[in-house]
């Protein structure tokens, strides 16, 4: 999931879109017809690209008929999964999915984690996080989930300490120890890479890092780990369809060594396998 800042707009729009679910549906419920192709709703990059790799290189041998449908919003993939227009989706994180289900009364469940688009700490002024001076200014995304992730990233590397249990809801007010007396500048997520000439460091989302020609694996002072990260992007289905043999095959392929290598080779650290 590439732009967490879009979540609020997407969720607000969900009510209106839900009223028109039949309009975005199909004559045939692709989720219940396990003899047909598995239709998966996905964001274009990297989700649909990863699915296309599976379709072109792995699916036929595994006996999986896979169809990929691209969506550019963060609402329709879930509403289409809920009403059976598609059999699965691949675009979101668990925190977003939980929030969506709660606010929209949907019944979408995770099947398997696939990848992480990691946040990283970047700087044009220092080469290592330890080189940040006392009183340095660090830009962080200002939306709830990404700001919490940014602060958790810094805490996981001992740069700050946070209150126990704050998770991705963390804000600068939850900092309990700040040895370098860092000052935090809260910005729109898309603005964080553009701030690098004006601040000492910035925490930047993976997709915005790519757009700014930053190479996470090489340029980040510290970088989120994919293992066990709750913000991994996942394959999801409507509750009750987890045992669909087509879904099981796709989940296995998405966690295969071939897909892991494809992600590592194609995205050079901007996208990380979560398995």
UniProtKB/TrEMBL annotation:
It is a lipid-anchor. Transmembrane segments: none annotated. It holds the Pfam family Lipoprotein_9. It is found in: Membrane. Residues 1-23 form the signal peptide. The keyword Glycoprotein does not apply. Keywords: Lipoprotein, Membrane, Palmitate, Signal. InterPro entries: Lipoprotein_NlpA (IPR004872). It comes from the Bacteria. The keyword Signal applies. PANTHER family: D-METHIONINE-BINDING LIPOPROTEIN METQ, METHIONINE-BINDING LIPOPROTEIN METQ. Belongs to the nlpA lipoprotein family. This is Lipoprotein.
């Amino acid at each position: 999931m590439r732009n967490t800042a879009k979540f609020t707009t997407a969720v607000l729009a969900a009510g209106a879109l839900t009223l028109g679910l039949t309009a975005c549906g199909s004559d045939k419920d692709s989720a219940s017809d396990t003899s047909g192709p598995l239709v998966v709703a996905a964001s274009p990059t990297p989700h649909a690209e990863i699915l296309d790799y599976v379709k072109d290189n792995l699916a036929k041998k595994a006996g999986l008929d896979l169809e990929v449908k691209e969506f550019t919003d963060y609402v329709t993939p879930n509403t289409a999964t809920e009403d059976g227009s598609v059999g699965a989706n691949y675009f979101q994180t668990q925190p977003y999915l939980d929030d969506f289900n709660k606010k929209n009364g949907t019944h979408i469940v995770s099947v398997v984690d696939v990848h992480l688009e990691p946040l990283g700490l970047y700087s044009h002024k220092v080469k290592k996080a330890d080189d940040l001076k006392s009183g340095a200014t660090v830009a962080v995304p200002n939306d709830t989930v990404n700001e919490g992730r940014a602060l958790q990233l810094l805490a996981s590397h001992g740069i700050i300490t946070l209150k126990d249990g704050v998770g991705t809801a963390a804000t600068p007010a939850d900092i309990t120890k700040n040895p370098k007396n860092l000052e935090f500048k809260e910005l729109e997520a898309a603005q964080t890479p553009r701030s690098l000439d004006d601040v000492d460091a910035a925490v930047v989302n993976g997709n915005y890092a790519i757009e700014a020609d930053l190479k996470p694996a090489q340029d980040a002072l510290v970088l989120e780990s994919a293992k066990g990260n709750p913000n991994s992007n996942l394959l999801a289905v409507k509750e009750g369809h987890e045992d669909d043999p087509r879904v099981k095959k796709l989940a296995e392929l998405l966690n295969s060594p071939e897909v892991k290598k494809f992600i590592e080779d194609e995205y050079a650290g901007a996208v990380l396998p979560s398995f």
